[in-house]
Design goal:
The protein contains 20 helices and two strands. By secondary structure, it is an all-alpha fold. It has one domain: Amino acid/polyamine transporter I (Up-down Bundle), CATH 1.20.1740. Strands 1-2 form a two-stranded antiparallel sheet. A hairpin with a 2-residue loop joins strand 1 and strand 2.
Length: 492
């Protein structure tokens, strides 16, 4: 029997229903006090307890792209902040750690499939959840685009290393679309399979990347002087770099959407969040300090199509190893792409179950018990955006990566500002001054990053990203109200 949202939740016809289509959806009382967390049985259509703590940690690190961070973080930041990249990375890490403390508190309290969107709906009401849902949707679409681009970059660089030329933008576009098309059916086959494949692909190339980094640094040394004196400092590029640096951690909380599928989630998830942030921060800061001087000297080769890792391998006189590692990093990027598609599917499926998207998108696959339609929906949306962009601009794939690199930062900024607000509210409610202070500092830092973005060379990207989030937010409100007026939570 299909019941209305008002019947299930109470007098508020726009409140999130507790569960629909097998996806956990937060219940909000509409007051400043948090509602009760959904019980585990509300996710009965998803597989529970299949992911161990170790799998969850490596899956999270794979999703955030540890191998790509080690090999390419310096190159990504260097094009914006130059020798000041390390300082951007340190500041970005500090913001991510503050946000992590808020996620840790909420993850101990609630088990959800909607990540930040669910936490906000439970803690401060459904309106904040709707806004966060819009931001996360835009963020996940753009991250899928980014990992598709970087996968193609590594593949093209590998093919160039074996003397196969693939520099045509239409061909690169076709490869990227085909890659996502192959991963969609794989991701619906079950969370355990996706996690195992993603982890193996994501970590197989890390030892080779480490060897190349050591070899390159041994050949050139590290120019700490230019970095610590901020040689050539440009305020506009530095501000854009800060947005990009803290955006490196965007989506770090994504695997909280797999809480019901993780063993002992309320004990495991909080520990994993801070562990993942610490490991990612160490890799990112170390990579930036070691590689930025080399990348600055080789920027033309990268813009011509060479991967940052190939440049490092050439510097280390390890071109053969670099060619092999490009293949391994292609596989690692595919692992990250698969991981984000899984995280995105659960968040988007929960959004659909809450009425923010057409309800059929949130249905769980009856056999594999995965949000197959949501995974397909968000992945196809990402590919359509990428294909449209490349068709209009005829830009090489790495240029597309650079242009989209800041979109997740700005999109997730909206969700993180809402998260910081929820942290302040919770700190006041529980009389925890330190938590109020940490949440306020995190929120102000993210607001500052967004404002700084409008004062930097990325102002156009900032305006575009926030405009898209606003459009999706309005669309979600309209869809949700239509569902409530129809007297049913089912949108067919």
């Amino acid at each position: 029997m299909i019941t209305s949202a008002a019947t299930r939740v109470g007098s508020d016809p726009t409140a999130f229903p507790k569960t629909r289509n097998g996806m956990v959806v937060p219940v909000s009382t509409g007051t400043s006090r948090p509602a009760e967390s959904p019980d585990t049985h509300n996710a009965e259509h998803l597989v529970t307890g299949r992911i161990s703590a170790r799998q969850a940690l490596f899956f999270g690190l794979t999703a955030i792209g540890t191998a790509a961070i080690l090999s390419g973080m310096g190159a990504t930041l260097a094009f914006y902040a130059g020798y000041a990249s390390w300082l951007d990375m340190v500041l970005g890490t500090a913001v991510a750690l503050l946000l992590g403390t808020i996620i840790v508190r909420f993850s101990r309290r609630h088990l959800t499939t909607g990540s930040i969107m669910s936490y906000l709906a439970l803690e401060v009401g459904p309106r904040a959840g709707v806004l966060a849902g819009a931001a996360l949707f835009v963020g996940y679409v753009s991250v899928i685009i980014l990992f598709t681009c970087i996968s193609v970059v590594f593949l093209v660089s590998f093919l160039q290393g074996v003397h196969v030329s693939v520099t045509s933008t239409p061909l690169e576009t076709l490869v990227g679309a085909a890659l996502v098309a192959l991963l969609i059916p794989l991701s619906r086959r079950g969370v355990t399979l996706s996690v195992n494949i993603a982890v193996v692909l994501g970590w197989v190339g890390v030892p080779f990347v480490a060897a190349i980094l050591i070899g390159a640094v041994a050949r050139t040394g590290v120019d700490f002087h230019s970095q610590f004196t901020l040689t050539g400092f440009d305020s506009s590029g530095f501000l854009a770099g800060f947005v990009l640096a803290y955006g490196t951690f965007a989506g770090f909380e994504g695997f909280t959407a797999l809480a019901h599928e993780t063993t002992s989630p309320q004990r495991t998830i909080p520990k994993l969040i801070m562990s993942m942030l610490a490991i990612t921060a160490a890799c990112a800061i170390g990579s930036v300090l070691l590689t930025v001087p080399i990348i600055i000297d080789s920027s033309r080769a990268i813009l011509a199509g060479a991967s940052p890792l190939q440049v490092l391998a050439d510097t280390a006189h390890m071109s053969g190893v670099g060619t092999l590692t490009n293949l391994l990093l292609f596989l690692a990027s595919v692992g990250s792409l698969l991981a984000f598609m899984n995280n995105a599917g659960r968040v988007v499926g929960t959004a659909a179950s809450a009425g923010l998207l057409p309800g059929f998108i949130g249905r769980v696959h009856p056999v594999h018990r995965t949000p197959a339609r949501a995974i397909a929906f968000v992945s196809i949306a990402a590919i359509l955006v990428l294909v449209g962009y490349l068709f209009v601009t005829h830009a090489p794939i790495y240029r597309a990566f650079l242009n989209f690199a800041l979109v997740p930062s700005y999109a997730w900024s909206v969700a993180y500002i809402c998260l910081a607000y929820a942290g302040v509210v919770d700190g006041l409610r529980t009389k925890s001054p330190w938590f109020v202070a940490a949440s306020a500092v995190a929120g102000l830092a993210v607001v500052g990053a967004v404002v700084a973005g409008f004062a930097s060379e990325s102002a156009t990207v900032a305006a575009f990203s926030l405009s898209v989030v606003a459009a999706v937010w309005v669309g979600g409100i309209v869809t949700r109200r239509s569902a409530a007026l129809a007297g049913s939570t089912q949108l067919l």
